[in-house]
Amino acid sequence: MVNAGAMSGSGNLMDFLDEPFPDVGTYEDFHTIDWLREKSRDTDRHRKITSKSKESIWEFIKSLLDAWSGWVVMLLIGLLAGTLAGVIDLAVDWMTDLKEGVCLSAFWYSHEQCCWTSNETTFEDRDKCPLWQKWSELLVNQSEGASAYILNYLMYILWALLFAFLAVSLVRVFAPYACGSGIPEIKTILSGFIIRGYLGKWTLLIKTVTLVLVVSSGLSLGKEGPLVHVACCCGNFFSSLFSKYSKNEGKRREVLSAAAAAGVSVAFGAPIGGVLFSLEEVSYYFPLKTLWRSFFAALVAAFTLRSINPFGNSRLVLFYVEYHTPWRRKTTKLGKYPVLEVIVVTAITAIIAYPNPYTRRSTSELISELFNDCGALESSQLCDYINDPNMTRPVDDIPDRPAGVGVYTAMWQLALALIFKIVITIFTFGMKIPSGLFIPSMAVGAMAGRMVGIGVEQLAYHHHDWIVFRNWCRPGADCVTPGLYAMVGAAACLGGVTRMTVSLVVIMFELTGGLEYIVPLMAAAVTSKWVADAFGKEGIYEAHIHLNGYPFLDVKDEFTHRTLATDVMRPRRGEPPLSVLTQDSMTVEDVETLIKETDYNGFPVVVSRDSERLIGFAQRRELILAIKNARQRQEGIVSNSIMYFTEEPPELPANSPHPLKLRRVLNLSPFTVTDHTPMETVVDIFRKLGLRQCLVTRSGRLLGIITKKDVLRHMAQMANQDPESIMFN
Description:
Blueprint: E1 2-3, H1 4-8, H2 35-52, H3 57-98, E2 101-103, H4 111-116, E3 132-134, H5 135-140, H6 146-174, H7 183-190, H8 201-216, H9 224-239, H10 243-246, H11 249-268, H12 271-282, H13 288-308, H14 338-353, H15 357-360, H16 363-371, H17 405-428, H18 438-462, H19 467-470, H20 482-498, H21 502-512, H22 518-535, H23 540-547, H24 565-568, E4 581-582, E5 586-587, H25 588-597, E6 602-606, E7 614-619, H26 620-633, E8 642-644, E9 651-652, E10 660-661, E11 666-667, E12 672-674, H27 679-689, E13 693-698, E14 701-707, H28 708-718
Parallel strand pairs: 4-6, 8-10, 12-13
Antiparallel strand pairs: 1-9, 2-3, 5-8, 6-7, 7-11, 13-14
Helix pairs in contact: 3-8, 3-9, 3-11, 3-13, 6-8, 6-14, 7-23, 8-9, 9-11, 11-12, 11-13, 12-13, 12-21, 14-17, 16-18, 17-18, 18-20, 20-21, 20-22, 21-22
Domain CBS: 569-635, 666-724
Family: Belongs to the chloride channel (TC 2.A.49) family.
GO molecular function: antiporter activity; ATP binding; voltage-gated chloride channel activity
């Protein structure tokens, strides 16, 4: 028996893996990253850069560029996300109005832009101008009458169907991952799961285009959730340009967390709310430096959006309000045919929505009208009050504002619109098109809130002597502001759907500009969460994650069962023994056969099959790459070559082929627990460290393995749910 290194006379050949080779450290699709390993790799990279920076001026400059690369990425994300959001807003305004008519002076102008650029427009008739013509006026030269109404009705439906068909076709053919809001998948990706292509360039392009189409079609969905997906696609693109992020999945997720904040910032004009949303709702790992960078990205994105000024009011907010009163007080048959499903739902939506003015207009315009206070210049039906300055009353705390005919008409139209919105949103969310739930949820809450507000307002007017109103009204001011009720209702409904709390309140006051009403918004957010939690602890995004079977371990879930690691680990009783590698006795052919016959993500490495003493863990992908590269780059490596994971090669006969050293791909410090570790502790470890798997030992001897999916299956089983639902579907 001789030493193989001495035998060959070229021991350096066996150590070629001491240098990195292509694709090492990467992960396969639909697998979970190793957070501890990614953190360790980044620490090693930073240590090398720091040591090299002292060698020369050039290396020092490179270290500075590396340190500033994070801020550069945030700047680029903010600029692109803000630009895309502004373009989307402008395009949606134009295409939404295109369903009703066209501007003769410039066809790319929306109705509002067309009329405000006209010299013949007066303030009282600001929505009517000769330059803007409805389709009936343009095609048959009629603006009134049954034939004109029917023609406009048909054109509205045809445009809606065209937009929806184009959107679902583009998604189906070019980017299937562009459907939905994207937030559940982004939460899963940020937790460490790999979904290749979900944040790719094609997804970014198709999602941006189709988002304009579906919102313009009039479907009951919003663009705010998908804008988070769009911003994360921007973050993924720019992070791929810097090796610091492209080669480290953990660092890449720091960028994506900041991008999610930028997405909410441009969606609602709420940079602070965006940071809190990323922290509270979507991020899994959120270090302090990510907080600052998220704020910077959100700030740049908001500034870029304001520079574009898509709302024409020099504000970031969608629904700016100013009150002068203190508040005080998955499996459908139609779903198998995604294109047909979208067309049918779009047709139903357009047919039912057109006759009702509150469902015909865009959801953002509807919410804006519901939030508005009734001023002297308001022409909305919701502000049709009877004002008689000569009327006298014994108590003048409450202004004399009985509801007029317009208000009562608006009430029953809002009631019908509320029912329609609730029903159609249920069927719309989840179709194979970009679809957000923020704005539809806010619209439902705002309609309900405005109706309640008007009811309380009229109750206060007709029963002003009730003690509940007598003590809360100031002379010369409105006792009840219905628009405020709409704002609180919108926050309550959105909070009930998503279970957001702190970030919701901040987003709402940034969205509306109503900072002084933060207390009723807080009360609404907390109350809606309590009520919604009574029906189920999951928000819409967590429910969507579980519906799709994503391996997401939610930090909000509690595990209180008294089970042990030995109850969950594999192999269980009656199952085949654990597949392991030995440190210096298996050939290349043995390992290749084991990889071919199993689908495990990695293998524990033990001293021998007899002792089962654990020495480390080797990833499947890295073993495959290492063997492939060794066969190409090192002479003498054949199927009979011994593979070893030790520092020194084993003693082999003189005529043995060259052994293959694979110590570089061995993780010498895999996370281990004993077989009597409580599962409550194991679950907490998986959450806080983001583990892919941990090994179970007793006195250093390997007993089994627990993977993230094993933990999720066990939690589902303990909750009397189907444990096999935990898979990527």
